[in-house]
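User: Design a sequence. Structure:
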């Protein structure tokens, strides 16, 4: 693969059910660059599509915040 300057990861429970007891809407986002890293937990509400859309928006905000540091 090609080298990357920014890595982004997401994991969580978008629903409709939780396989491991975490509340539906729990999402963890990680961002790493050569000079910084950050992980953040979020708790979104709504149906599966709404939670996924909120996770994408939050991941983009997290990338912008880390790159701006």
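Assistant: Done.
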């Amino acid at each position: 693969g090609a080298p990357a300057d920014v890595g982004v990861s997401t994991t969580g429970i978008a629903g409709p059910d939780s396989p491991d007891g975490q509340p539906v809407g729990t999402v963890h986002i990680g961002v790493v660059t050569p000079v910084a890293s950050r992980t953040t937990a979020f708790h979104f509400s709504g149906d599966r599509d709404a939670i996924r859309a909120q996770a994408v928006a939050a991941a983009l905000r997290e990338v912008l915040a880390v790159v701006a540091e």
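The chain is about 30% helix and 30% strand. Strands lie at 7-12, 26-32, 37-43.
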